Amino acid sequence: xxxxINLAGLFTAILLLAVSTANSQRYLSDIDSSFFIKDTxxxxxxxxxxxxxxxxxxxxxxxxxxxxxxxxxxxxFSQFSTSxxxxxxxxxxxxxxxxxxxxxxxxxxxFQIDATERGVIVRDMFLKMFETKSNLFSMTAGLFAxxxxxxxxxxxxxxxxxxxxRMSQILMPSERDLGVMFSHEPQDxxxxxxxFKFDVGVFNGQGLSGTTDFDSYKDLIARAFxxxxxxxxxxxxxxxxxxxxxxxxxxxxxxxxxxxxxxxxLFTVDSSESNLGDALPRHYYGADAQLKLKHKWGETEWRAxxxxxxxxxxxxxxxxxxxxxxxxxxxxxxxxxxxxxxFLLFLQNVINAKHQVMLKYxxxxxxxxxxxxxxxxxxxxxxxxxxxxxxxxxxxxxHINPQTKIIFYYDVVKNETTxxxxxxSDKKDNILTCRLQFRF
Length: 440
What we know:
Low-confidence stretches: 1-22, 36-45
Distance between the termini: 32 Å
Largest sheet: 16 strands, antiparallel, barrel
Number of domains: 1
Strand order of the largest sheet: 1-2-3-4-5-6-7-8-9-12-13-16-17-18-19-20
């Protein structure tokens, strides 16, 4: 009889906890503030009051402009397909917090999985420890979000557009990595500098694209962030980000941009023996700003974020690898490129907060040292990996209730027109996405 009562109590607790945590964390590195709201539900859940269960599901239907479209709007389409139903994300997250006597956190354990038709993967698994004397500092260790940029850290639960931009997905695949991070994040919002947060961490570098670190080089990542600050219905926030890292060169060949005697831009090779095993520089710099106006219709918001730096890769890719880069199982020469990119987003509530329209523009230029006319010329070694892409996203979201919304979003994707086969005109790769999202 006692076992049945305990099981019933546990089941009731889980249901009540799920209902009470509809407002999950907005940023991947933040703490769910509902942990520290005084418990007012029935006593049966007292023993579970420090446990939170949240999650969301994103079923969607997509139509592509052509069969087999290569896309960053949820992955490439199958060879003979122009439409698909898919479960873009389906996640469940369990958080356990240990509060101090002052009701500030002492420790936080977080575990999140993503289960779709493509398989099951762990998205978060970390422990966050807080110092409780001044409640100013914390340390995070495990698998968690890299502290770089605004878009990377905005949770998919709250992100208005269906996907992060192309540059985010190429340079920060999966957003997470294994490492350790130290943070200055005052828990007492009345402190003088409570709006300022600073993170600095050391990470493997390959994120979830590999099962283990394939070399000894690590990424140092830091971010200074001004948390949202509201005055007279105007809210502002912003940040600066830095990444200094790299990975092992598997060969002695390093290609870098230069200029030929006839003025052509091209890659030339350095084949010094000292290049073998050396660290290929991965250096990113970023700045972001957000401005929100609150009015009778709801909100108007502008966001801007710019990245630039140096990215190592191969002749055919600038994506961060999970293993030492190879082509056809042969270790690949390294290509060093200067890149930049931007994310611009405009959000507007119409009539009321249930209706929202959005415009997003982003570009990713993987090689800022060349122009479109250089790519494809004989002898330049320039490939599709050097082609600049830009995307204009136009969308509408209807919020059925605080936990459920429907999104209609159209990506207009443009590539540079070059002399390279397959890129002599704009590719047919526009995507329409219709998504239903529910969170708890």
